[in-house]
Amino acid sequence: MHKIRRWLTLIAGTMRYIGQMLWLAWQVQPVYCVALIVLEILQGIVPLATAWIIKSIIDLLTQHFHAQDPGQLVRGLMALLLIQAVILIVAQLGAPLSEFLLAELSRKLTLQVKTTIYQKINSLAGISHFEDPQFHNTIEMVATHAQMAPTQMLQNVNMLCKGAATLLSFLGVLIALSPLLALIVCITVLPQAVVQIKLSRQRFDMFFDNSPRERRAAYYGRLLSWAPYAKEVRLFNLGQYFLTRFTEMTRLILGAQSQQQIRELRWQGGLAFLSTIVTSGALVVVVLQAFSGRISIGDIVFYISAVESIQSTLSSMAFELSNMNDSMLFFRQYKELLHLQEEQLSVTQEPCAVPPLTSGITLRNVSFRYSEQQPWVLRHINLFLPACQCLALVGLNGAGKTTLIKLLTRLYDPTEGEILWDGIDIREFEPQELRRNMGAIFQDFVRYELTVHENIGLGNTDLLENTVEIQKAALKAGIHERIEKLADGYQSMLSLWMAEEKGGTDFSVGEWQKLALARMFMRDSQVLILDEPTASLDAQAEYELYQHFRELMRGHTCILITHRFNTVRMAEQIAVLEEGQISELGTHKELLERNGTYAQLYGMQAESYRA
Ligand SMILES: Nc1ncnc2c1ncn2[C@@H]1O[C@H](COP(=O)(O)OP(=O)(O)OP(=O)(O)O)[C@@H](O)[C@H]1O
């Protein structure tokens, strides 16, 4: 009973997915869907009609040996040949026409499905999913296979319609000859269907297992061929190493595909053997019937082609069923992706608007770890950042500074404790709304392989067309003069491989960092977050930036992370993070007097400058 219920649930689930796929195709282009099905049914009847014409021609010719009226024979033959011509037109035109309709539909569906996939990915406000390999497996499967699933499903349904039309038309004929034979021919399809579905599952598992391998192989390929890696790969002579790993990985992928095909071949061999026995048996029955004089010579040809057609139609229908199963499994991944929930971020149903920050930001007993299996990165942090002041966060590598910024910008939510914006828990705000009030530059800022104009303008897409604001931001970041010297100025393409022909250019790391700063200045955000903003700047650029620092930060609440202590001292408050906890808090002067970690680090850096 339990098993039956499980089967019923499985079948119901499968039917639901099939329905959803077809509904998707229908929504995209209903006329094409109907036209396709009609065309396939018409083509499905073609084999029966052709067999009937051949039978009729043979019968007419055999009768001619007994009858004496050649005129009647010619008229009969002409009529049959005319019908055959119509059938041929349907067969010849139908196939390319349905191929065209299917390709058109497929293009529209691909656009729809791909856009939906990336819309969904873009709607994930947090970043925890992006660090999960399972998520990447799903995306890869969905992006490469599932986008074709609805089209494939429609094609399967079409082929099934065509098959059903052929089958039903011939089956009626075969039942009239021998119901037992018809039954035997039909029963042989059962093992075919079971085997094909089993193979389809194995195929899906193979794709799934290959997915991380494909990702790795693609990564090694990038290491070997992309410009950012070319320098180091050559200097360390890593080409052969990555090439070997690429080849190993590709060999694994292809090996798995080959094994699957061998499995399929074995099963299909067995099925072909079964089908040969049934067809031969059916042939014997037909010949026996002819011997006993119950059927004509034309009938023999007709019945033989009926058995052959039913057999091949049933096999291809079983094959289509297995393809349907493939599509269904891939489509299920697509639906799962669309139903993916935020894991780390709590989503409030009635979000508050983000008010102007008047008092400040409070971290109350905040603790965080990336997952339950990983150690605590931040532990019991209590901190108050007054509005319109600057807080500098210092600490050794891995102390948790960037992680704290990820919590403030709601890329993650604290595992314990809360962060309050003028007393309101920031989980009450929509992440996007909160981020609109924050300008941030991370130490691993993005280098967009786009124009200079876009690289700055993307800091505020509302001002993307506003060249005046873009130039102002570039001036603030100290990069305007350099841009002016470029052949195409702000329209210069900052990419050597995305540019058309050889028109692209590239910046130095420090220039890229200035560009990222300019991007941040495009926003008049209440809170500015600078994670190592000057790490790649030369001494002069850093000096100039900090000369204007107070002016640039005026009216903003600012959080500054840096390992450069001459920068840190500008902050009103300095917090020292050690192993995920705040160990010291105060002004530069206070912390030096305290003679703790800060004073020690400051002293070490000052000494290294003096040496
Ligand atoms: N996505 C992640 N998943 C798991 N652990 C992470 C992740 N990101 C960072 N960590 C770990 O959290 C700890 C704190 O990292 P974080 O980047 O916050 O340090 P940091 O103080 O900014 O260091 P640095 O000065 O080197 O930039 C490190 O031990 C790091 O390995």
Which ligands occur here? adenosine-5'-triphosphate
Tell me the count of domains.
Answer: 3
> If you consult CATH, what is the topology of the largest domain?
ABC transporter transmembrane region fold
Give the CATH class of the largest domain. Answer: Mainly Alpha
Structural class: alpha/beta
Q: Which CATH architecture of the largest domain would you pick?
A: Up-down Bundle
Note poorly predicted spans: none
- Summarize model confidence as the mean pLDDT: 84
> Spatial order of the strands in the main sheet?
6-7-8-3-9-10
Tally the helices: what do you get?
Answer: 21
Instruction: Choose one word for the global shape.
Output: elongated
- Radius of gyration over C-alpha positions, nearest whole angstrom: 36 Å
Q: Strand share of the residues?
A: 5-15%
For the secondary structure, the number of strands is: 10
Q: CATH H level of the largest domain: which superfamily?
A: ABC transporter type 1, transmembrane domain
Termini Cα gap? 83 Å
Membrane topology: Multi-pass membrane protein
Organism: Ktedonosporobacter rubrisoli
Keywords: ATP-binding, Cell membrane, Membrane, Nucleotide-binding, Transmembrane, Transmembrane helix, Transport
GO molecular function: ABC-type oligopeptide transporter activity; ATP binding; ATP hydrolysis activity
